[in-house]
Amino acid sequence: MSNDPHHSDPSSAVPLLQVQDLRVRFGDKEVVKGVSFDLAAGEKLALVGESGSGKTVTALSLLRLAADAELAGRALLDGRDLLALSERELRGVRGDDIAMVFQEPMTALNPLMPIGEQIGEVLQLKQALTKSQAWAQAIELLASTGIPEPARRAALFPHQLSGGQRQRAMIAMALASKPRLLLADEPTTALDVTLRGQILDLLSDLQRQTGMAVLLITHDLVLVRRFADRVAVMEHGVLVEQGRVEDIFEHPQHPYTQRLIGSAPVRDVIEAVADSTTDTAASASHLGVSYPVPLPGIRGWFRRGKYEAVRNAAFTLPSAQTLGVVGESGSGKSTLALALLGLLPHEGQLEVASRQWQVPTERNSPHNKALRRHVQVVFQDPFSSLSPRLTVEEIVGEGLKVHAPELNESQRRTRVEAMLADVGLTQEQFPGLLSRYPHEFSGGQRQRLAIARALIVEPQLLVLDEPTSALDVTIQQQVLGLLQRLQKEHRLSFLLITHDVAVVRAMAHRVIVMKDGEVLESGSVTQVLDTPSHPYTQKLVAAAEPVVPT
After folding, report:
1. What sign has the CA pseudo-torsion 136, 179, 200, 470?
2. Can you spell out the DSSP letters for 337-350?
3. What pLDDT does 363 receive?
């Protein structure tokens, strides 16, 4: 291991890329502060850090894609300083020598062009191929990324592909000109755990075949151990430590690196005790949820078909315990949660606080309104789930206007202040807290606001829909600790929807595993995760385990 910022791989006398004292400034604020690292041909380097650490800006600066940024230092690609090239010279580097895979393919891909045409456009521009030649080559590139039926899917638009297929298409486009260096900016963050492993395995295979170097930008330490040869750790724009993966993970030297590696979710819950008298927060049997869909052909003129999103599901959630719902996208997890919240019609038996939701035509009945107080929800992305036009006091106190109309304004404010303090937000920390807006808080603080909003009406059950997947690892640990404390103090029950096996291990008492709308396996958290019986569960658990590259 080496903390020397100019450390290079001894297997390569002249590194492919040499970043020397890179500085990036936006106006008066310097966000990258003298970063230096080397990257050898054929090497995989992970640039790790939390949001705001400067890792993405560092990667974008290599291709001068950071708008309005003032750059200083040097970035040598085979001796050519990328920061000193003219825009015309740099266009020859982009795509040909260095390509980039972005975090979210739905925003990076053109929604108005078929995938094959988007890849073909690169080939026509960079390799002067004809349209028909570019189309044929685009299909070959898609096939090389493992997309099934590449010829058919080349004609599809981005929205017609799954998340994993869109990311594979992005990789195919990046590899079109056979670059020597691939910049992969959080290429798996938006994907399920099994798809993350598949995409990294794909990048590893393609890297071995082509000999290109890869700079992986990520905050997922499990994937770093699985993929990278070396790792460089950034904090607040400074490269604090770098070295071989096994050295950094086994013997981290910098306090920030130690904190990152030590931020795995910690289990701190009241363990379940076998007791037949335990109250039940929610239960379901033979639960089904379906959507109407159009039928093909002339049949669709007269009647509609039915898509079963959840079929014959069953679970029991005791009071003051957590039920983890695990599965990939499209497995039915969120549909199950929406039914539990009384937002979707369902078949079969479904009880919340020993009561059932009334039929959809009575959704806003007094019965349903009273039941909603017992079950609340915390969403995945706190920024989009909080109104940007409401103050903290209005956001958190909104539920009291509906479920406790007898309270006057002063009483509501007292309840709001007490609830905010309970989730760790006080006037002493944030002067003028009640009059602030969501954009004035960090991601973890916004999630605390979302939790306070849900708890202000004193529910028995919280539906947690991926409550930490949008957060950095250290913030994730803090939010999970908060939820565990609140569960103990308020005897809350949680329905936890997630694809993160580590979060399930830390939080859940029982687990159900879903795939294609069905519950494949259920049981205690140790039974399901330590000795899974279904092959699908075994695959999910295996995909979440860190694998150190050999």
Report:
1. negative
2. HHHHTT-S--EEEE
3. 67
pTM above 0.90, yes or no: no
Tokens 């920061």 correspond to 83
Report how far residue 164's alpha carbon sits from residue 146's, in angstroms, rounded to the nearest whole number. 10
Residue 276 CA to residue 85 CA, distance in Å, equals: 73
Contacts of 111 (CB under 8 A, 6+ apart): 157, 158, 159
- 512, 312 contact by CB (below 8 A): no
Nearest to 371, CA basis, from 357, 359, 385: 357
Q: How far is CA 139 from the centre of its chain?
A: 29
What pLDDT is stored for residue 366 in this prediction? Answer: 87
**Residue 22: CB partners within 8 Å, gap ≥ 6?**
32, 34, 35, 36, 58, 61, 71, 72, 73, 74, 75
Which ranges of 373-523 would DSSP assign to H, the alpha helix?
382-385, 392-403, 409-422, 443-455, 473-490, 501-507
Cα Rg for the chain, rounded, in angstroms? Answer: 26
The secondary structure element, H or E, covering residue 84 is none
Cβ-Cβ contacts under 8 Å for 528 (sequence gap 6 or more): 511, 513, 521, 522, 537
| Whole-number pLDDT of residue 13 | 60
Q: Which long-range contacts (CB under 8 A, 24 or more apart) does 525-531 make?
A: 525/324, 529/501, 529/504, 529/505
Q: Give me the pLDDT at residue 14, please.
A: 80
Q: How far apart are CA 55 and CA 35, in angstroms?
A: 10
Nearest to 417 by CA among 432, 405, 402: 432
Q: Which residues of the chain have pLDDT under 70?
A: 1-13, 190, 273-278, 300, 360-363, 545-550
pLDDT, residue 264, reads: 82
**Dihedrals φ, ψ of 238, to 5°?**
-115, 135
Alpha helices for 179-326 (secondary structure H): 193-210, 221-227, 245-250, 255-261
Question: How far apart are the C-alpha atoms of 320 and 63, rounded to whole Å?
Answer: 52
pLDDT at 409: 95
Q: Can you tell me the distance from the alpha carbon of 464 to that of 497, in angstroms, rounded to the nearest whole number?
A: 6
How far apart (Å, rounded) are the C-alpha atoms in residues 205 and 183?
Answer: 16
Model pLDDT, residue 6: 40
Query: According to the model, what pLDDT value does residue 190 have?
Result: 62
Torsion angle, alpha carbons of 538, 188, 170, 38, to 10: -120
Separation of alpha carbons 233 and 539, rounded Å: 30
Dihedrals phi, psi of 56, to nearest 5 degrees = -70, -40
CA atoms within 13 A of residue 398's CA, in its CB half-sphere: 13
* Residue (of 232, 251, 228) closest to 240 by Cα position: 232
φ/ψ of residue 409, rounded to 5: -60, -40
Pairing of strands 230-235, 44-48: parallel
**Interatomic CA distance for residues 199 and 168, integer angstroms:** 7
Q: What is the pLDDT of residue 502?
A: 87
- In sign, the C-alpha dihedral spanning 420, 425, 429, 433 is negative
Report the SS3 class of residue 214.
strand
